[in-house]
Amino acid sequence: MRGPARAFLGTLAVLGLLLASSGCGVWPVGGHKPVQGLRIAVPNTPGGGYDTTARTAARVMEEAGIASDVQVFNLPGAGGTVGLQRIVNERGNGDLALQMGLGVVGASHVAKAKVTVARTTPIARLIEEAGAVVVRKDSPYRTIQQLITAWRKAPGRLRVGGGSSPGGPDHLLAMELAKAVGIDPKKVGYVAYDGGGGNLLPSLLDGKVDFATSGFGEFLDQIGSGQLQVLAMTGDRPVKPLPGVPTLKSSGIDLVFANWRGVVAPPGISDADRKRWTDVLTALHNSPRWKAELFRHGWTDVFATGDTFRSYLDQQDKLVTDLVAQLGLE
């Protein structure tokens, strides 16, 4: 091989190594080109937990070369059941998926929706997020024990804010917490801000609610700046973004509660489309950028696909059905 030809091939080899190391246009699974045409519906308003998860996932997919031009759009209403109905109506649409979770499952029961998640195509469970009991910086309650003492004395007087409608995770957390500390859930003054923390935050900061039961990830900026204080976490262990914040368990309250989020597709999609969504989300899960986002938001990795996620959805549906009945929310 002559010198110029050898030099040209050498240049190509170097360029190939540079492209591979940078990840430009290289799909992490199987070396495929970025997938195009994906759309993710978010069943609440911008700024909520579903919205944050979907937009973070879409951004990471694009940054990692997994998918390009992923469209995320909001379909708020009725605790997420408006978005759920849209997904069910889009039968066979393999380009569309719904960012959903415990809130959509709960709302479908409390709102007596015509559709449930059982009519969708399960794709993947992505993350789990512990809840938190949050107060504003000038709250008279500096510890979870002080708050619970005041709440027991006048359960109807203290207003509890949550970023979900009845049946959603924030509402269920408030009801479960009341039950755990000996308060009749029916006496709780729960104020719903359907759409997530983005709608709840102004009322919490302005003192329109006395405390909030919600996912802490949506308030990290305000917690970091000192505008809000977390009295307790609801998971089984402290979370890394909030070192030193006790759990309910460690504070003597027998309750562990966590929200989760996943992705489902319309019914009747092809096996090829289901595989495409599963492969894309598996690539997302395996990417270092996604792992960094898990840490930044304080999310727990609970990735599951296929029959494992389908079984989990069935289990959650039954648990929520029983809980809604126990709390008299039917």
Mean pLDDT, as a whole number?
88
Q: How helical, in percent, are the residues?
A: 40-55%
Could you give the distance between the termini? 80 Å
Oligomer: single chain
In CATH, what is the homologous superfamily of the largest domain? Answer: Bordetella uptake gene, domain 1
Q: What is the level-2 CATH architecture name of the largest domain?
A: 3-Layer(aba) Sandwich
The CATH class of the largest domain turns out to be: Alpha Beta
**Record field, number of beta strands:** 12
Question: Structural class of the secondary elements?
Answer: alpha/beta
- Give me the CATH fold name of the largest domain: D-Maltodextrin-Binding Protein, domain 2
- Radius of gyration (Å): 22 Å
How many helices does DSSP assign? Answer: 11
Major sheet details = 10 strands, mixed
What does this structure look like?
- With 330 residues, this protein is an alpha/beta fold.
- The protein has 2 domains: 25-128 and 260-326, 3-Layer(aba) Sandwich (D-Maltodextrin-Binding Protein, domain 2); 129-258, D-Maltodextrin-Binding Protein, domain 2, CATH 3.40.190.10.
- The protein has helices at 3-22, 49-63, 81-89, 102-110, 144-153, 169-180, 197-206, 220-224, 271-286, 288-297, 306-326; strands spanning 35-36, 39-42, 67-68, 71-74, 96-101, 121-136, 159-162, 189-192, 211-215, 228-233, 258-265, 300-305.
- Strand 7 (159-162), helix 6 and strand 8 (189-192) form a beta-alpha-beta unit.
- It contains 11 helices and 12 strands.
